[in-house]
Every structure is written in C-alpha cells, then in structure tokens.
Amino acid sequence: MDIKVIDNFLSYDELNSIKNLFGLEPSSTITIPLHYSSEVANLREETSYWNYYFTHVFYDHDKPMSHNFDQIYNMFIPKFEKIYSVKSLLRCKLNFYPHTETLREHGQHTDYPFSHYGAVFSLHTCDGFTRLYDGTTIPSVENRMLFFDPSLKHNSSTTTNYSGRRNINFNFL
Fold first, then answer.
1. Hey, CA dihedral for 65, 66, 70, 76, is it positive or negative?
2. Cβ count within 10 A of residue 61
3. Longest dimension (CA), the chain
4. pLDDT at 43
5. CB burial string 147-173: b at 16+ within 10 A, e below
6. Is the pTM of this model over 0.70?
7. In terms of Cα–Cα distance, which of 56, 6, 8 is closest to 32?
8. Residues of the chain falling short of pLDDT 70
9. Residues 1, 115: contact at Cβ < 8 Å?
10. pLDDT at res. 26
C-alpha cells in the first residue's frame, strides 16, 4: 500500500461538526468520555512520565463501542470508499496525546500483525507528527488524512505548541 496524504479531507461544515464533538471550538464542550491509557502502544519506555495518552474507542471487535460511532462512520467511511474498497472496519478511535514541554516521540509499533489499511485524521495543526516505517514524517495538519499500512512500524508524538495532539485513527480491510 502506498502512503497517501490528503489535505482538506472533510468539508468545512463536517470538520466543524467533528471539532465541536471533541471540544475544539471555543463555544463547544467535550461530549465524549476520554479514557486514560498508561502506555502509548503498550511499549514500556524508561521515561514513562510522558508516555501516556487518552482514547475514546468508537468501534472495535466487530461492534460499535460509542454512541457517536454512526456520526464518525457516516462522515468518513463513504469518503474512504471513494479511494479504497472498504470490506471491513477493524477499529476506529480518537487519540489524545497531552502537551509536553519538549517534543517526545513514542515508541514504534504495529497496529495488527497482518497487512491492512490505516488512516490518521488530524483534528488540528500542531508540531506533532506520525513517523512511518521508512522514516517519513507526516506533520499534524488540521483536516489532513494520512493513509498507510499500519502493520509496518510507525509511531506518534506529543506536541509542544497545543494543549494536546488529537487525531482519529482507523484500521480497515
């Protein structure tokens, strides 16, 4: 699978709707619960004081896990299907990596041990990024979608210039 980066993936109204859901607009409040995870990608690192994040799982193990799943699914999957033939959604979740004073890279990992499609949607612009298996760094830019094979090693990062880095991750066949 080739790496694809698509800017302005959602329409202006769709983007604002998603940002409102996650409390990213001045007039909005967070309407979904975030759950603490003590390790990013289940990798132990010596400096663990910054190696945590929060998630909200929309879909996993062949079933919706959130009352907001339909909204996310209906906004994104039809657009994916214009690019790829989506046979099955494996997982969909929001990741929130808290702000750190120094930009920190999380350890490399794979999402599943078999080739599949992955997508990372950036909810806002910050100095965080996703680093892919070949060393390519894809900056977090608002309304940017990154497609790649997450069965190959990759990693996320924190941000220093925003309250936290927020993205929506998809895994699908």
1. negative
2. 8
3. 43
4. 58
5. bbbbbeebbbbbbeebebbbbbbbbbe
6. yes
7. 56
8. 25-30, 42-48
9. yes
10. 63
Q: For residues 4 and 27, what is the distance between their CA atoms, to the nearest angstrom?
A: 33
Query: For position 139, what pLDDT does the model report?
Result: 98
Sign of CA dihedral 28, 32, 33, 38: negative
What whole-number distance in Å separates Cα of residue 117 and Cα of residue 142?
21
d(CA 32, CA 60) in angstroms, rounded, equals 16
- Do 170 and 76 meet the contact criterion of CB atoms below 8 Å apart? yes
Contact 132/150 with Cβ under 8 angstroms? no
Instruction: Assign domain 4-172 to its CATH superfamily.
Output: q2cbj1_9rhob like domain (2.60.120.620)
Half-sphere exposure of 146 (CA within 13 A, CB side): 23
pLDDT tens per residue across span 53-82: 999 999 999 999 999 999 999 999 999 999
Write down the pLDDT at residue 51: 85
Amino acid at site 85 = S
Q: Are 141 and 125 in contact (CB under 8 A)?
A: yes
**Residue 24 pLDDT:** 72
What are the residue boundaries of the structural domains of the chain, listed by start? Answer: 4-172
Contact 77, 121 (CB under 8 A): no
For residue 129, the cross-strand partners are 139
